[in-house]
Protein 1
Amino acid sequence: MDTKAFKRSLQHSENYNRKGFGHQAEVATQLQSEYQSNLIQEIRDRNYTLQRGDVTIRLAQAFGFCWGVERAVAMAYETRQHFPTEHIWITNEIIHNPSVNQRMQEMEVEFIPIEGKNKDFSVVGIGDVVILPAFGASVQEMQILHEKGCKIVDTTCPWVSKVWNTVEKHKKIDYTSIIHGKYKHEETVATSSFAGKYLIVLNLPEAEYVADYIINGGNREEFLTKFAKACSAGFDPDRDLERVGIANQTTMLKGETEQIGKLFERTMLQKYGPTELNQHFQSFNTICDATQERQDAMLELVEHNLDLMVVIGGFNSSNTTQLQQIAFERGIPSYHIDTVERLKSVDSIEHRQLNGQLITTENWLPDGEIVVGITSGASTPDKVVEDVIEKIFTLKATGALV
Ligand code: SF4
C-alpha cells in the first residue's frame, strides 16, 4: 500500500478530524476539575518540595501529563460533546493511564474488543465515531475504519507523526528503518506499519548484535530467530542492512536512542568509509521533548539524598518504566505504582518491577524522617499524584492500615 498517499487522502476526507471541534473552553473546565491538583500546584510553588511531619516530598521538576497527552484527552472529551448520542469507539487506551481510561468508559467511549490476538472491528458500525489514541494507530486499522465510513478523530501526537514521516523518508530512498522500541508497543506497531523494511531493536545490546552482524556477518538463522517478531516480512539481514536510518518509539530512553544512533553511524563509517557514509546512514532527531524533559528531571532528582522513590504511571506505560529504570540504576528503593490503591498500608506496597512482575514489598516506608522522591509518567494526571502524596503523609502520620 502507498501509505503516504492513503494518509493524504484520509486527511482530506470529510470524515476525518485531527483538530478538535471548537469546544476547547468548555472541556478545559471539566479537565481542570477532574485531573488538576491544588496540592501539586502548591508543591511546584514551593520549589518542588513539601514537608509534613516526618515526610519530605521531593517532586521531579518535570513530570506527569505531557502536552500530547493533554491534547489527546481534551480531544476525546470534545468528541463526546460534539457527538452526544453517537456510538464512540477508541482503537486502544487513549493513553496508558487507568483512571483516564476509566473516565472514557464512564463517558461511554468504548474500546474495540480484542478477539484472540486481533481487534474485532466488526462491532464498529457505519457512521460510528472512532478515536485514534495519542500514540496513533496502524495504517491498516485506519484503512479499515475509513472504508467502513467511520468518522475518525485522530489524536495522534504530532511527535509520533514526525517519526512516521521519518520512516516514510527511509522507505522512499530504500533504507531500512532501525526502530528503537518495543515491538509490541502500539506506537511501534503503528510506526512500523508506515515503514518499508524495518528492524526493531529493544536496547543497546540488541543494537550491538545487529552492528556486529553488519561488520562481521554471522549466523543468519540465529539473527532471523532473534528478530522474528521484530522485522518486516521477508527481511534479509544480508541484504537489508546495507542502508539504514534510525527511528524511535518516542518514549524510549533518550540517551539510549542517541547511543544506538551513534553506534550505527560508527558501524557504517567503519564498513563504508567517510565518503560513502551518507549513502548508508540517515538520522533525524525524533526524540520527543516531553520524554526528554521528564528523564532529565528524574536524573536531577536522583542526585538528591532520597530514601525511596515512588514512580506513578500505568503499568503498560513505556515512559514510566524508563523513569523507574533510572531510579533502579541508582540503587534507590523505588516503587512503580499505577494508582493510590497500591499503597496498602505503612507496611505493604504492591508495585511493578522492571521485569513486569507485580509484587508486594513489606516495610517499604522507613521509620523516622524520610525523603521521598516522586515522579510520574507522561500519561498520569496530577490528581493521581496528589492522592499518592496525601496517602504517604497519612500512612506516616498514623501508621494505620488504610
Ligand atoms: S510523550 Fe511526547 S510523543 Fe508521547 S504523547 Fe507526549 S508529547 Fe507526544
Note: Residues 254-272 form the longest helix (19 residues).
Protein 2
Amino acid sequence: MPRPRLIMDRPSDEGYPDVEGYVPIGMERKKMHLPKVDEPELIRHYIGLSRDNFGTDNGPYPLGSCTMKHNPKYADRLASLPEVTRMHPWMDDGYTQGCLEIMHRMEMALRCISGMDAISLQPSAGAHGEYTSMLMVRAYHSSRNEERDEVIVPDSAHGTNPASAAMAGFKVVEVPSAEDGCVDLGALEAALCPRTAALMLTNPNTLGIFERRVKELAEMVHSCGALLYYDGANLNAIMGRSNPAAMGFDMVHFNLHKTFATPHGGGGPGSGPVGVRSFLEPFLPIPRIAYDGETFTLDWAHPQSIGKVSSNLGNFAVILRAYAYILRQGGDGLKGCSERAVLNANYLKHRIEKYYDVPFSDPRKHEFVASAARLKKEKGIRALDVAKRMIDYNIHPPTIYFPSLVEEALMIEPTEDESLESLERIADALITIAHEDPAVVLAAPENTPVGRVDEAKAAKDAILSYRRLHAIRGV
Ligand SMILES: Cc1ncc(COP(=O)(O)O)c(C=O)c1O
C-alpha cells in the first residue's frame, strides 16, 4: 500500500513545505513571522515569564471564591503519563476502556459526594456547568408544557449565575439579602410566581455564610413548581459534612478545578460536571457513559437530552487529577479538608477583624468578606491598594470588590492547605498594611517587575499572540 502523502514530503524552493492541495484556499500563510531565537534565549524567556507570575507554588493565594488549593504533584504526574497524553477522544471505545472506566468511577464519586443520582462530566468550567443546568431547566419545564421564563438569583450570587440564566434565554429576577447576609425569604416569597423556572443558589453563599433556612427555602421553591439549582463552587466548605441533595437541591454543578485540587486560572483548564436528581436524568447531556458489567460504551439513546455541550466527553486530564485527589483523600480525608478550610478562614477572620470590618453575622464557612471602607475613609487606602501591597509581601491578593454588597470588599479564602505559619503571615501582612504610611501603600507594588498597570487597557487590549505583537510593534 502506498505511504500516505505528507506535507513535509515536498519542500518548496523557499524551504517551506508546499501546502498546495492540503490547506483550504485563502488560509495558507507564506511567511510564519516566528521569532528567531536560539535555545538559551528561549529558555530564559519562559523562565522569566514564570518568575514574573504568581501561583500557588510561589506563596499563599487567598483569592476568595476561587479555592486556590495546592495542586498535588502526584496528580500532575498521572495526567502526564503517555497512556493518558497519547489518547485521542475520537478513538474507538475498544481502545478507551480505561479512560471510560475512570470517568464512570468519577461519576460515582461525585454522586456519593453530592447525593445526586446521575452525573455528566462534559462541561468545561463552572459557568459552563451552570449554563448546561439552565438548558436542562428549560427542557424539563417544556417537557411538562409549562411556560416558565424567570430564574431567581440572590444579590450575593456569583456574576456567572445571572449570565448563564440569561444566555439560556431566561429573564433574571434578583432577590436581596437580609441583614444576616442570607437570602431575604420575604423577598423570595414575593418573587416566586408561576413563571419561575428555578432559583440558583450557592451554599455557603459568597459571603461565606451558610443559608441556615435552606430547607424552608427549598420547600418554597418546590411548592411553586420551580427547580432548585446548587452552584457547587463553594462545595469545599461542606463536603463530607453535608450535601446539596440533603439540603433539597435538584441539580448541581461542581468546580473540579476548585474543590478537587486541579489547576485553574486565567480561564482554564477547568471542569464543571453537572449532577441531577433522578427525575432530571433524561435531560443530561449525551453521550452518557454506560456500563453493562463488562464493557463501557457511549450511550446516545436519550431522546429528551439537551444534547452535547462539549466536543468530547469532558476535560479528561482535569477529571483524572480530581479523581486521583478524591481517591487519595478518601471520604474522611475530604471531610477533613472542609473542616480545616472552615477553621482556617475563621482563624484568619479572627486575627484581622480589629483592623478591617467584617460585616454580617458569624460564623463563616470557608471564606469571609472584609471591608477596607474604614481605611479608605481614614487614610485614603482602598481595597485595591491593600491588594496591590500584599503582592510586596509575596502573598497573592484576595478577590476585591466582590460581592458588591460589601463596600471596598476584600474576599479572603485561605483554603485548608495553608499552615498556621502561613495564616499568620497573611494576617500579619494585612495588619501591617493597615498601619503603613498611605504613600507606601498607594505606590505598591514596589517589589515586582511591573508596577500598577492600566487594568482597563490590559483587559480590553490584551496582546496574547506573537502575531498580534508583530502586527503592533513590527518586531
Ligand atoms: C460561586 C461561584 N460560582 C461560579 C463560578 C464560576 O466558575 P468558573 O470560573 O469555573 O466558570 C465561580 C468562580 O469563581 C464562583 O466562585
Note: Residues 65-66, 125-127, 158, 160, 202, 206, 231, 233-234, 255, 270, 272 surround pyridoxal-5'-phosphate (CB under 6 Å).
Protein 3
Amino acid sequence: MGKHLAICGGEPVRTAEFPRWPIFGKPEEEALLRVLHSGKWGRLDGNEVEAFERRFAEYHNVRYAVAVVNGTVSLRIALLAAGIQAGDEVIVPPYTFLATASCVLEANATPIFVDLEPDTYNIDPAAIERAITPRTRAIIPVHLAGLPADMDAIMAIARRHNLIVIEDAAHAHGAEYKGRRVGSIGHAASFSFQSSKNLCSGEGGIILTGDERLYDRCKSMHNCGRVPGGAWYEHHVICGNYRLSEFQGALLNAQFDRFDEQAKHREEMGRYLHQRLAKVPGVTPQNRDRYPVRHGYHLFVFRYEASVYGVPRSAFIKALAAEGVPAAEGYVIPLHKQRLFVDKAFGPYTACLQARPDLDFGKLSLPVCDRASAGEGAWLYQALLLGSKADMDDIARAFEKIYEHRDELSEASRQSRVL
Ligand SMILES: Cc1ncc(COP(=O)(O)O)c(C=O)c1O
C-alpha cells in the first residue's frame, strides 16, 4: 500500500486502463457491411431487426418484441399501447434517468414519484401502495443498475388495484429475479441499446410483452399506426415512425452473440467485488441479498458514508480516479428536483397540470432518494466488471487505500489543496 494517496502526490494503485466499451471486432464489421451491400437498410426491407427481436424475446422468455429507436420511445409507446391517457397517474421512482418519468408526461398522464428502498435504491413497494389513488393506472419500476426491483410485491399490488406494470429494464438486460428474467414479469418491459448500455447499437430500444393485444398496438404504433394487411398509406392510431434500422439490427445481432458470456462475467466479477467492498468501512454495495437475483450490473452502485471519511462524495470520487479507478456520483439531481418538474415545464403536455394542480414536485420529500442524490449514492460503470479478478482486486485496493489514508484525504480537503 503506497505511503500517500495518489491525489496527494503518491503512487496510484494502478495506471493500466480498464476494458473499453463497446467491445467489437470482425463480426460487427461483417454484419454492417452485409447490410450495406444488401441495399436493405430499413427494417421493412431486410430481416436483421426481426431476427434480433426474436432472439432477444426468446432470451428473456417473452413471446413478443418490438424494436424501436431508443429506450425513451419504447417506454412511451408501451404506455400509449396500454391505453394510458389524460388524467391517469403512473407511479415511478425518482432515482433514474429522465425518460422513466418524462414518458408519462408524453403520454399526457401524471407521474407520481415515490421513494426507494434504502439498501437497493429500487422503488419501495410500500411507498407504491401508499401513493395509489383512484386515478392510478400503472407502475414503472426501474431495475436500478441491473438489480431487479421486488417484482412479486409490485405485481401483487398491481393485481389488487388492477394496474399495468411496465418494467423499465434499460439497465437490466439478462438480469434475473428469483430465477425469472426481468422483462418477462410485468405486462410489458422496455430496454435501451444506447451506447453505454450492456447491449448496445449506439441508439436503440425494445419493448417486450407476452400480451398479444399490447404487442399488436406497439407494433402498429412504432410503424406510423399501420396494421397488418392495411395499405401503406393507411394509419389507424396516433404515433410515428420509430423503426430501428437494419444497421442497428445487424450490430445488435453481432453484439448479442457476445452478450451472455459478458453478462455472466459481470455477474461473477460484480459478486466478487461486492464481497471485497462490503468489508471497507463507509462503503456499502447495493444489497443483492433480499431475494435471489442475477444482477445485470449495468452499474455497480454503492452507498458512501461521508462521516467515515470526513470528505464529501465528490472528493472520494476524485481520490478514486487518482488511484486509477474511474467512478461517478450518479444521479445527483433526483427527477422531482429537476427544473423540468419544479417549473412544470411540460410544454404541450398539460393534462397533468389540469388533473393534479396540487402537485408541487419541488416540495416533495423523498428522503432516501434525496440522500442518495445529495451525497450517498455512487457508481462504477459496467465495463470495469469486464476486467479480470486482478482488476477487481485493484479496485478493492484503491478503496482500502483511501480508507486507510482517510485522514490524509480529509486534511487535504480541509486545506483545499487538491479537492
Ligand atoms: C433507467 C433508464 N430508462 C430509460 C432510458 C432511456 O433510454 P434511451 O437513452 O435509449 O432513450 C435510460 C437510458 O439512459 C435509462 O437509464
Note: The chain has 15 helices and 13 strands.
Protein 4
Amino acid sequence: MRDYSVRLLTDLLGIYSPSGKEENISNFLVKEMETLGFRVRKDAIGNVIGEIGKGEPTILLCGHMDTIVGNLPVRVENNKLYGAGAVDAKSSLAAMIIAAATLARESALQAKVLVVGAVEEEATSKGIKHIIKQGLQADYAIFGEPSGVENITIGYKGSLHLKITCKTETGHSSTPWFYENALEKAFELWQRIKNAYPPVEEQESPYHAVTACLVKLTGGKGNSKVPSESEMRVDIRVPPQLTVAQVFNVIESVIKQYQTANLKVQVKVTIWDQNEPFEVAKNSLLVRALSYAIRKVQNKPATLLRKTGTGDMNILGRATNIPIVTYGPGDSHLDHTKDEHILISEYLAGIQVYKETILKLSELHKKSGSQ
Ligand SMILES: [Zn+2]
C-alpha cells in the first residue's frame, strides 16, 4: 500500500503538466485509474473523470492535474518528496484516487465516488467550469488543495477584478497647469476606492474585510504630452457576509461621485472577472465527517480554516447548493515555490483521512435520510 502510494505520486510528479499541457498526465491517469477499478472517461476539454462504487450519496473528489510553469526535479530526501505539484496539488489528487480505490477493493465503499482530475486550475479554472456546465451531479464535494492534514478549509473570499480607464484632454507637458493628467487622476480615484472601506485592521478580521489592491496602472506615452489616457486594474476581495454585487455598488458610487466632481475626466469601469465568496456550514455532514476522520487518523481535533484567497470551491459553490470543503495534505506556503515538497507521512495520513471521510460521510448521509 505504502509502496504503491509513493510510486503513484512519484509518477505524477515525474510528468510535467503546466496548465494547458495536461495531455500526458491525463493519459497516464486514465490508464492507472482503470487498472484500479474506476470507470474512467476524459471529457471534451481533457478533464479525467473516474467513477467507482455505486448508490448514495455521490461524493465528488476534485483535484487538478496542472501546475504552474517551471519543472522541478523529482527527488526523495529525508522522507520528503520533492517536485512541481508535490503540494499543489498532486498529493491530494493521488490520495483521493487511492482512498476511493482502496475502499472499493476492501468492499467497504457504500457510495458513489467521482474522482476528477481537472485541467487548468492554475490558469482559468476552465476544467471545473466545464464540469459544472456538463451538469455533473454530486451530494458533497471536496477539493483537493493543501490545507494541511489536520485542517479543513471551509471558506474562501470572493473576488472582483475591475478595469478602470480615465481619459482627459491633452496638451504640452511644459504647461501642465492647463490640463488634467490622466495618470494623476487615476491615482486620485484609486485612493478614493481604497478608502471606500476602512483599513483591514479596523474591520472584523482580514477574512471578513473588504480589501482593495491596485495591481496595475499604466498610461502616458513618456513623451512631452500630458498623459490623456490611463488604465488601472483593481483587485477587490469580497468577504462571505457580502456579495460581489453589493461591493461593486459601493465602488461604483465612489466612482460616480468622483466623476461628478471631475467633469474633465471621463471615467469608465468594467468588471473583468468576479467570483462569489463561499463558506460551507460548519455543522454540515461533510464538515462533521471530515472532522471525525482527522481526529481518528491524527488523534487531534481538526482546525477549520477560512482563507483570504479564492479557489475552485467558490465556482462550484455558486453553481450548486451542496456542501463543499477544500482539504488536502501539504503546507500551502510551499505552493509555487522551488522548495515544493510533501512529507511522505503526511501524504499517507491524507489518504487515510479521505478514506475515513468517505466511510463516515456515507454513514451520516444514510442516517440523515432515514430520519
Ligand atoms: Zn492548486
Note: Residues 64, 88-89, 121, 145 surround zinc ion (CB under 6 Å).
